[in-house]
């Protein structure tokens, strides 16, 4: 133990007792103790070189966030997202005429438009109807190719299904992913028209209107077309009339 440091630079001039552990730590060349076992000469108490500080950062799955939706990035979650991105990319038009944008990816593959099984239920059925694509009696690839040739792309602001534990955080997740979505529309997708198709996006309509997307924004009387609302079939009919009309900026 060192009672007092009397000089800067890590040197002490005090009388210091030196147990075995302390003696072992003294640098080479330190004068020996006196008959009482005390050191009366300056000696270095600090190492002359700093050793690198090593540490280990431990992260749990709950700490990792999916960059497509902001939710916890469990392995199964990420695998499902990558699979759906692969399915969607196969039918992305080279030049996107109409980007149909929902709030969150459907939970079931049957409702996911680009799933290879081609069940075309839920949102997928409504979108195809609005786009004027008849899926009856056709192979999934034929249906999706027809949708693609029409210049349509269906995407979601949250690229993954909403986890049950986040059912009360929809707006929070949407708002956190909104800047990346707007940047992607401007820089990568570059559609001629964006159409919002989920009532969950109503609170960010103003953000889309002021985002300088360099394309038209189609709304249902100032609101998103609520394909997830109380009367989705009526919303799909109104959507059909909107997307078959020429794009008009600010509509």
| Average predicted confidence as pLDDT | 83
In the CATH hierarchy, what is the architecture of the domain at 81-243 at level 2? 3-Layer(aba) Sandwich
The major sheet is characterized as: 4 strands, parallel
Helix/strand class? alpha/beta
Spell the H/E element sequence: EEHEEHEHHEHEHEH
Describe the global form: elongated
Q: What is the helical fraction, as a range of percent?
A: 25-40%
| Strand line-up in the sheet with most strands | 6-5-7-8
Q: In terms of per-residue confidence, which ranges show pLDDT below 50 for 5 or more consecutive residues?
A: 1-18
Topology:
Elements lengths: L10 E2 L3 E2 L2 H6 L12 E2 L3 E2 L30 H15 L8 E7 L17 H10 L8 H10 L2 E7 L11 H20 L3 E4 L8 H5 L6 E3 L13 H12 L8
Parallel strand pairs: 5-6, 5-7, 7-8
Antiparallel strand pairs: 1-4, 2-3
